[in-house]
Every structure is written in structure tokens, then in C-alpha cells.
Design goal:
The complex is a heterodimer of chains A (about 90) and B (about 775).
Chain A (H helix, E strand, L loop, with lengths): L1 E4 L13 E4 L4 H11 L3 H5 E2 L2 E2 L3 E5 L2 E2 L13 E6 L5
Parallel strand pairs in A: 1-7
Antiparallel strand pairs in A: 1-2, 3-4, 5-6, 5-7
Chain B lengths: L1 E2 L33 H5 L15 E7 L5 E7 L1 H4 L4 E5 L11 E3 L4 E3 H8 L4 E2 L5 E7 L2 H8 L3 E6 L6 H5 L11 E4 L2 E6 L2 E9 L2 H7 L2 E9 L11 E6 L5 E5 L4 H12 L6 E5 L15 H11 L3 E4 L2 H7 L6 E10 L2 E14 L6 H7 L8 E10 L13 H19 L3 H8 L18 H10 L1 H4 L7 E10 L4 E9 L5 E5 L7 H13 L6 E5 L16 H28 L7 E3 L2 E3 L5 E3 H7 L8 E8 L5 E11 L6 E11 L6 H20 L30 E6 L21 H13 L10 H19 L1
Parallel strand pairs in B: 1-31, 2-17, 15-16, 19-20, 23-24, 30-31
Antiparallel strand pairs in B: 2-8, 3-7, 3-9, 4-8, 5-6, 10-11, 12-20, 13-18, 14-15, 14-17, 18-19, 21-29, 22-23, 22-28, 25-26, 26-27, 29-30
Helix pairs in contact in B: 3-7, 10-11, 11-19, 12-13, 15-16, 18-19
Classes of the chains: A alpha+beta (about 90), B alpha+beta (about 775).
Chain lengths: ~90, ~775
């Protein structure tokens, strides 16, 4: 199962749990399944059908540009990080 | 010089190697003359202000004289009546957008804020905020007409200091901006637009376990990118609804996207032609003039060009955030065991500063198992901050690298050895949860320690030496390349990455290496948004990595097509045709060079075109280590940099001269940030030094020759091992110089810039303290 790591500010949703294991093949499924277990999660990370502006998902330690279409595997680790722009 | 990692890489074997460090290249690593060199040397290159069109009108921008004011009314009738004035534009001519976001690849931006920054809507949020614009038959008439525009303001209290702006009773810039805490919003509007928390391990417990803990507070001033070319844009809105914009921009496609978004027109109706660019450093990714020139063109039916003044640049375009940073580090048994950081960055007039990067960068060079980082993005009555080379990292590194130096001194350990003992390596987890792939920080530190500069004698009692490290993420994103093969064996390379630091040539060299031809046989051209596939900005240290990858893949496509053609000519199967080092081989010993086969193309089915579009992943990270020698004049407080060496992992230096140029340029900008540059505001929030005379950037006379050492730890995710190099070198200088000043004087300076008055005051205070202690 993929493992989603929540930043400290989102752990209020899970009662303090940092890591959540979810069976999923895409990031969209990760978000949907976590939201089913912890209602309100999707609203914190999704906006207008895409990733919330200012946030990014890191899958296996690489920021994905594929949004919710991004694939995850059974061993994937997923982090939520702020978007970072270069100069 | 280039430093081989061969004696340093044994401890940290790469987990996945695509790039082969033992590969020998024909083109990569050489230093050919840049393809655009002659045009630039003889003045033939076309910059934004060189654009001349029939019927061209000239624009000028009226800027707010107040740092914070409600715009009660704008009466442009007198200006419009002046001879030669053709149109006046205000925010009323732009669509009134509400919370409308567009994704620019690196980050999403709020188009409502972008539009309101181009022309103030309802409120002016900083002195210099554009309020109205004029198009006239000459630039002189346009400027004169500005004084005839009557704007009635209701002046409001202003705040420019980041900590003051965070106070509950601070003047509020926006009544629709709330504090976002990872998707959770505050109940009341606030200048604090974003609150971030990162944590790993158990920092509270870990600090209690430490043998030595040092906590320090730091401040940095807002500084500007300092590009020499003034922003300029020319727009022509044709009767058929097509808008063409000539821009000085770091990204023609994102400029197109922003223009279409702000004006609410189809993206297919906008064509952006990127001109040569006289510096950007992150400051020419956003828009200021393009939508304004566009609406003036629509109003007049004529092309309109607007160029900023230098004062307009300082007062109206984004500096990098001023910051307040508190960093604490704890050591247990000689190893970093715990870290804590609190960062507040000013975002300027609209939300969206660099706080996320600052938080992720603050401990990024080190393996710190327990850490907590808190960050705030804070609106203030200053120009909207914009990216500036490794945005957000320099402020954070100034704090951390100074504390690291203090810890090493307290432990009696050499500062580079201390860094080596605690360096991030492949597998280290950063505080934001990211685990590093193969990186070259250890090799870079070792190269710095080996450098003769590090142990050279210092000259005189007022001299000191300091070191500091720096990190930047680097990014990948999207790039495209088209390659057209000519019958003479040359190829045309068409790309969309605007060339700021010699990227035409570094990309052409990667194509040349792929095709087995010379760099001179590739003719690179940067073209407009109608003529090549989507390409993200020239920023994030991505172009040599990502557009180079696109060129490489287009080259592979061309080779595949040429093998097909060779098979046709030789009457064999494609799989019978080989390609190696620029030579196609076939059955029975037949062979053709690349040029030989190219000559056969017209008569065997026609010339060939190849293309590639990539969404590049795996840029991997950049690390640098700088060594600075300073001399401190105790009479005046002036700090002179007497020797400076930069060491950086480039993965593989495609054109070493351009890598060295990036390292030198970044170092010099960092030296300016360290010693002189700052936005000085009066109590009304007015910038007091909006000229190059008073905003003191380093000149060639202020800095020594910057020595460079390129370390090459190949990026396993790039066919030639490239890592981005453009941003990392601005990160270490302030801390390296602060550490050198400490070595020279015993003073720890924790406020930037370390300008002569500030250093002098610190020296006087230290003397007074010493006298008091002696009494």
C-alpha cells in the first residue's frame, strides 16, 4: 500500500497520525481514500479538481507534475509540500 | 578548474547510474564560442527596446506616491486632451478577476493579484504601484501626460516591517486574504497569508539531549535582482483579435499564459516573441507591462511600447523578501542532533512569497534527525516580492551557516570538517520529508578543503576567512526542441528557452554530442510561442538540464529517422544500420558520416525534421561551498572582499565557461546582498534609494576575481549527468562573509547588509563593551 505522510498542520484530521497507508494506483485514489477515512482531507489539498494552488505532491521524493493523474505503487511514499519556484 | 570526484565518491556509491562518469565526450566539456556572441558583441542582437513598428506609440506609467492608499477617483480627461496623447488606461480597462488561479509549472499564481499589481484596483498597496498608463506619440509626451492625470487618494497607514505587519493591529492590506495553514484558513483577514510547519523526529526531546545548543536571531533586508536591462514590452493588438507581444521575459509561454489569463482572452490569440534579455534572475517571470501595453494597443489600434524607468524598477517591481529568521541547532557527541527554525518572509503587497522554499532550505545541507521549522508569509506595503536566484534560500542559509560556524568554533572543530561530519548524503531525509537521491555535497566540501585558498596565509591583523555552504532544489519541468537537418550536414535547433546565461550553446552542444557533429554544426535559435512546443521558464536552474534533455531526445529521433533513410538507400533493414560517433554503418562495410548521409537526404525522400517534448524529472540538487577572505577597515566599517573561491557540484559541466560564469555571477550578487544592497524605507513606507547611485550594487572594482572549482558528481537522471547550477552560488556568500568578518574582528554580525555604518557601529559597541569590561 502507498504511504501518505501528512505535514503537522494536517494531522488534526487524523488525530495526530503522521502516516496513512492506502491502497491506490493514482494520486487521485490516494486523496479519495484518505478523504473517505478522514473527511475534510480532500478539501485541504484539492481545488477545482486539481491540486490546491501553493501545494505540491512529492511521490517517492520527487515532485510530480502530473497532478492527480500521477501513478503510485504499493511501495510509494507520498508527501505534501509547499510549491517552490526557482529564479 | 574541474575537480574530479574520483577520490571522494567511494563512501557514497550511486544507487542508480544512467550517466556514466567514465564516458568521454567530444563536445561536452569543451568551450566553443557562443553562437549568439557576434550578434551581441556588434550590437545586432534585438533586445526589447530595439523593437520598432510602424505607427508605434510610446507608453508611460503613473505610479502611486503613497505606500498605502484608497483610490477614490481617477480623472484622466485632461491628459486625454493633450496633443499627442492617444489613450489612458486604468484598472477599469482590465477584467475584474476574483481568486482566479493559473498554474505556471513551478507554482500557481492568482491572476486577480497579478492584474491588480499591473494596475492598482481600488487600493494602491505600495509607493510605486502602477495606477494608470498613457500611450502617446512620443515617450516625452506620454511622461508629460502623467502629470495631467488627477488621482484622488485616501491615504492609509502603511507597514513595511515584516514583524510589525504580523501584529494584530497592523494596517491590513487586504480584507480578503486569510492565513492559510495547509488548507485550513483563519477566521479573520490577516497580513499573514501563509503559515507552514515542518517537523521530523522529536525535536523537543532531542534538544534536551544535546551537549551544546546555540540559538540566534537574524534579519535580512529586501534586495533587488538588479538586472541591467529595464523591463520593456511592446504589444500589437490586431483588428483580427490576435495579440502579439515582444517581451523581455524569462518565459515566453508563461508570459502568454499570464497575459491571456489577466485579459481573459484565448491563449491561442496571444503570440509572445521573446527578445534578448539583459538579465532576469527570477525578476522577469511575472508581468508588469505586457497587459498594460496590450490594452493601450487595443484602445488605440496601434502598437504600444512601454519601458520602465530605473526608479520604476526599484519602486514597482519585485525585490526578494526581507526576512526575520531565528535558528537553533543542538549537537550531541559532535553530531547535529536537533534543529529549530522560525522564519518570517515579507511577501510584499500580495501573498505568495518564498517562505516554502526558505523552510525547506533552512537545514537542507545537513543530516539533522530531529527538527521543527515554522514559517510565515507576510504581506507588507512593499512591491510584490518576486523570485531572485534560489528564492528564499539565501536568507535561511545566512542564519544556519552562521550558527554552524559558531558551533564548530565552540567545539574546536574545523568548520569544513564539522560540515563533513554532518553533511546530507544520498538517503538523508530533509525536514520536508524528501529523501535525497545521489548528491555531491560531500565531494564539494572535500574539494573546498583541498583548495589552496583554504589554508593560504592571511594578510594582516584585520583580515579574516570564512566558509559557508549553500543548497538549491533545481527543477525539471517541460521543454521542447525541434531539429531540422540541412543537406550540408548542419542542423537547425529551435527551442523556446530564452537564453540568459549561454543556454543556446549549452543545449546545442548536447545535441551535437548526440549527433556526433561539432557544436558549430548546430545553429540554435530561440523562437516565439507559435513556433515551438511548450517550454517552461528559464529559471529554477532547469534549462541546461531540461531543454538539453529535449534536444538530446530530438537528436535521438533524428538518428532513428536517418537510420531508416540509410536502410532505404542501402536496401537493407533499419536494424542493420548502426550509428556511432557520427557515423552510420551498414552491411558489407558501407558507411556514411552524418554529413554524408545528410547530403543524400534531398534525393532520397527529402530532408528530415525531428522533435521532442519532455516533462523532465530528476533534476537533483545543487550544493556549493564558498571560501571568502575579507579585510575590515576598523575606522570606517568597510568590509573588502580580498579573495573569493566558489566550489560547486555541476553534475557535468556542458560548457565549463558558462558554469563558471554562473558561479561567479551568483557569488557577486551574494556579495552585494551581504555587504551593501538594501531597500531603505522611510517612516511613510517610501523607498529612499531607488537609483543605482544609492542602491549600491557591487561593481568590478568592488570584488576580486572569483575563483571557481567545478565538482562533477553526475546526475544519474540525465543522459549527460547535468545538474542545474544557476541558483546555488548566490546562497553561501552572506554567511561566508559574516563568518570571515567574525574571524577578522571577533564580531558576529547577524543583520544584512553588513554595510559600513552597521559594521562600524558594531565595532564601536564592541570597543565600548570591552572598555566597560576592563574597568
Amino acid at each position: 500500500m502507498a504511504t501518505l505522510y501528512l505535514p503537522p498542520q494536517m494531522r488534526d484530521l487524523t488525530g495526530g497520525d503522521e502516516a496513512i497507508e492506502v491502497p491506490a494506483g493514482t494520486l487521485r485514489e490516494v486523496v479519495a481514500r484518505v478523504d473517505r477515512r478522514f473527511p475534510g482531507f480532500a478539501a485541504r489539498v484539492i481545488s477545482e479538481g486539481g491540486v490546491m494552488p501553493g501545494l505540491a505532491f512529492s511521490i517517492d521524493h520527487s515532485i510530480t507534475s502530473l497532478g492527480l493523474h500521477a501513478r503510485v505503487s504499493e511501495e510509494s511514499v507520498v508527501h505534501i509540500v509547499p510549491g517552490v519556484a526557482g529564479g | 578548474m574541474t575537480d574530479s570526484p574520483s577520490d571522494a565518491a567511494t563512501d557514497y556509491a550511486p544507487s542508480r547510474v544512467i550517466a556514466d562518469p567514465d564516458l568521454r565526450y567530444e563536445v561536452i566539456g569543451t568551450r566553443p564560442v557562443r553562437h549568439d556572441g557576434v550578434d551581441k558583441v556588434v550590437g545586432r542582437a534585438v533586445y526589447g527596446n530595439d523593437v520598432r513598428l510602424p505607427g508605434l506609440l510610446h507608453g508611460a506609467v503613473l505610479r502611486s506616491p503613497h505606500a498605502h492608499a484608497r483610490i477614490v477617483s481617477i480623472d484622466a480627461s485632461a491628459a486625454e486632451a493633450l496633443p499627442g496623447v492617444k489613450a489612458v488606461a486604468t484598472s477599469a480597462d482590465l477584467p475584474d478577476l476574483t481568486d482566479c488561479w493559473t498554474n505556471l509549472g513551478e507554482v500557481a499564481i492568482n491572476l486577480a493579484h497579478l492584474g491588480a499589481n499591473c494596475l492598482a484596483r481600488r487600493k494602491a498597496l505600495y509607493r510605486g504601484h502602477a495606477v494608470a498608463a498613457v500611450a502617446a506619440t512620443s515617450a516625452h509626451v506620454a511622461r508629460e501626460a502623467l502629470s495631467a492625470i488627477r488621482v484622488e487618494y485616501e491615504v492609509l497607514p502603511a507597514v513595511t516591517d515584516v514583524l510589525e505587519a504580523m501584529e494584530d493591529d497592523a494596517p491590513l492590506l487586504h480584507d480578503d486574504v486569510f492565513t492559510d495553514s495547509m488548507g485550513s484558513s483563519s477566521e479573520h483577514p490577516s497580513n499573514v497569508s501563509r503559515h507552514l510547519v515542518f517537523e521530523q523526529g522529536d525535536p523537543e526531546r532531542a534538544f534536551a539531549e544535546c551537549d551544546l545548543v546555540i540559538d540566534r536571531d537574524f534579519r535580512t533586508a529586501s534586495v533587488h535582482q538588479g538586472y541591467i536591462e529595464l523591463p520593456v514590452a511592446t504589444a500589437q493588438w490586431s483588428a483580427d483579435g490576435r495579440l502579439t507581444v515582444w517581451a523581455s521575459t524569462q518565459g515566453s509561454f508563461t508570459t502568454r499564459q499570464q497575459i491571456a489569463g489577466v485579459l481573459r482572452i484565448p491563449i491561442s490569440d496571444v503570440r509572445v516573441i521573446p527578445c534578448e534579455i539583459g538579465g532576469g534572475f527570477g525578476g522577469k517571470i511575472t508581468l508588469y507591462l505586457e497587459p498594460v501595453a496590450a490594452i493601450l494597443s487595443r484602445k488605440t489600434g496601434r502598437p504600444v511600447k512601454i519601458q520602465m524607468t530605473r526608479a520604476g524598477v526599484f519602486q514597482g517591481t519585485g525585490p526578494t523578501p526581507g526576512s526575520v529568521v531565528r535558528v537553533g541547532l543542538g549537537v550531541k557527541d559532535g553530531r547535529l542532533h536537533a534543529g529549530r527554525a522560525w522564519l518570517a518572509y515579507d511577501a510584499g503587497a500580495f501573498p505568495g512569497g518564498m517562505i516554502g522554499a526558505g523552510c525547506a532550505c533552512v537545514f537542507s545541507c545537513y543530516d539533522i534527525p530531529n527538527a521543527r521549522v515554522v514559517g510565515y508569509d507576510v504581506c507588507a506595503n512593499k512591491p510584490k516580492t518576486q523570485a531572485y536566484r534560489a528564492p528564499g534560500a539565501t536568507q535561511a542559509a545566512f542564519a544556519t551557516e552562521t550558527v554552524i560556524d559558531e558551533l564548530a568554533a565552540a567545539l574546536g572543530v574545523d568548520p569544513i570538517d564539522f560540515r563533513l561530519d554532518n553533511a546530507a548524503v544520498e538517503g538523508t531525509t530533509r525536514v520536508d520529508g524528501t529523501v535525497y537521491p545521489r548528491i555531491g555535497f560531500v565531494e564539494t566540501l572535500r574539494a573546498a578543503r583541498r583548495h589552496e585558498h583554504y589554508t593560504a596565509p592571511l594578510d594582516g591583523p584585520s583580515a579574516g576567512r570564512g566558509v559557508a555552504a549553500g543548497f538549491w532544489f533545481n527543477i525539471g519541468l517541460k521543454s521542447s526542441a525541434n531539429v531540422h537537418c540541412n543537406p550540408d550536414g548542419t542542423v537547425m535547433l529551435v527551442i523556446g528557452s530564452t537564453d540568459i546565461g549561454g543556454s543556446r550553446t549549452s543545449i546545442a552542444m548536447q545535441l551535437a554530442e548526440t549527433l556526433g557533429i561539432s557544436a558549430e554544426s548546430v545553429h540554435p535559435q530561440v523562437t516565439d510561442t507559435d513556433s515551438v512546443g511548450y517550454t517552461d521558464v528559464t529559471g529554477g536552474s532547469r534549462v541546461t538540464f531540461a531543454t538539453g534533455l529535449a534536444a538530446h531526445e530530438a537528436g535521438l529521433d533524428l538518428i532513428a529517422q536517418m537510420r531508416d533513410r540509410a536502410a532505404f538507400i542501402w536496401g537493407c533493414e533499419t536494424h542493420d544500420v548502426t550509428f556511432d560517433a557520427g557515423v552510420f554503418g551498414g552491411p558489407d562495410g558501407r558507411s556514411l558520416t552524418f554529413a554524408g548521409l545528410a547530403a543524400e537526404l534531398p534525393g532520397s525522400g527529402g530532408l528530415l525534421t525531428a522533435r521532442a517534448t519532455v516533462d523532465a524529472v530528476g533534476p537533483t540538487n545543487g550544493f556549493g561551498v564558498h571560501i571568502a577572505d575579507v579585510d575590515v577597515d576598523r575606522e570606517t566599517g568597510k568590509v573588502s572582499v580580498t579573495r573569493y573561491t566558489t566550489v560547486q557540484d555541476a553534475g557535468k559541466a556542458i560548457h565549463p565557461s558558462y558554469v563558471e560564469g554562473q558561479m561567479q555571477g551568483g557569488a557577486v550578487q551574494g556579495i552585494g546582498w551581504a555587504l551593501n544592497e538594501e531597500y531603505v524605507f522611510d517612516e511613510r513606507g517610501h523607498m529612499e534609494n531607488p537609483t543605482m547611485l544609492d542602491y549600491r550594487m557591487p561593481t568590478a572594482l568592488d570584488v576580486p576575481m572569483i575563483d571557481t572549482v567545478i565538482v562533477e558528481v553526475p546526475n544519474p537522471m540525465h543522459p549527460f549527468g547535468v545538474r542545474g547550477v544557476g541558483e546555488t552560488p548566490i546562497v553561501p556568500p552572506p554567511a561566508a562573509i559574516a563568518n570571515a568578518v567574525h574571524a577578522a574582528t571577533g564580531l558576529r554580525l547577524r543583520v544584512l547588509p553588513m554595510s559600513p555604518p552597521r559594521v562600524h557601529e558594531a565595532l564601536v559597541q564592541a570597543g565600548a563593551d570591552e572598555d566597560a569590561g576592563g574597568r
